[in-house]
Design a protein that fits this description.
This protein is α+β, with helices and mostly antiparallel strands. The protein contains six helices and 15 strands. The strands form five sheets. A five-stranded mixed sheet has the order 11-1-10-5-15, with helices on one face. A three-stranded antiparallel sheet has the order 2-9-6. The radius of gyration is 22 Å and the shape is globular.
């Protein structure tokens, strides 16, 4: 579906903290479907709304929406780090009194506590480490309604990636602008910019490749009624785009 007010665009976020990536790279249609869900409160209505924002290729069942790319230039690349999180512990089963109460109090009034076991046991199960990546900017490309997307992102989008509610992927600012060329499927270097169905990638590039089953359109989570997989070629989880003007 291509509407008259749909245009190729570039969406750029300035991020203030490292982003944790999930099993699949962050795709623009996945991000916008989440924002549509926040707006509508209904998973099905969110997908209906998404088709009003992005160009939908009905033949190949894919949106014109790229995966996220980290913006790099000569002076600034991508930095990788590890972020640690402590998950919730169940009261009475894991969060026991002997974990939170002192085992003894010295004559000087100093309390001592039992050491947490981090090599095994319930405490170890709740200590999570995640690889995180950071560059000053991350970039998406798409074809759609720029005005509506800008309003939706401005109101609902504050963080990106996994564990966003714990402070990862904090957004400092964003900008969106119309561009001349559709870079949502094939980027400026001629490589695929998102998870692409094998048939579509062959049509675009002439390459004959053997794909694997994976989702290529929102929703990307298995629990959703509309989750589907197709034979496709995956985009790299950590994708780079050279940005000349920061």
């Amino acid at each position: 579906m291509v509407l008259n007010n749909f245009k190729p665009f570039e969406l750029m976020f300035e991020v203030g903290s490292p982003i944790i990536l999930g099993r699949h790279p962050i795709h623009l249609d996945g991000l916008l479907s989440n924002l549509c869900y926040k707006h509508t409160g209904c998973p099905q209505e969110a997908l209906t709304m998404l088709k009003e924002l992005l160009t939908w290729d009905g033949e190949h069942q894919i949106y014109h929406a790229s995966a996220m790319a980290f913006g790099v230039h000569a002076e600034q690349g991508i930095s990788a780090t590890t972020r640690n999180y402590v998950g919730n512990m169940k009261s009475g089963k894991q969060l026991r009194d002997d974990l939170i109460a002192p085992t003894k109090v010295t004559k000087q009034g100093v309390s001592s506590y039992r050491k947490l076991q981090i090599l095994g046991g319930p405490e170890r199960n709740r200590l999570n480490k995640h690889a995180a990546y950071h560059s000053p900017y991350v970039i998406f490309h798409g074809v759609g309604d720029i005005t509506k997307i800008e309003a939706l992102v401005r109101f609902y989008c504050t963080r990106l990636g996994v564990n966003a509610n714990s402070g990862s992927g904090t957004i400092k600012s964003f900008s969106i602008r119309a561009i001349e060329t559709d870079l949502s499927l094939i980027d400026g270097t001629g490589t695929h910019a998102r998870n692409m169905p094998v048939a579509l990638l062959k049509q675009k590039t002439g390459q004959v490749l053997v794909g694997t089953k994976m989702p290529v359109a929102a929703p990307y989570w298995r629990g959703h009624d509309n989750y589907t997989e197709t034979m496709a070629i995956a985009v790299p989880r950590v994708r780079r785009l050279l940005v000349n003007d920061f």
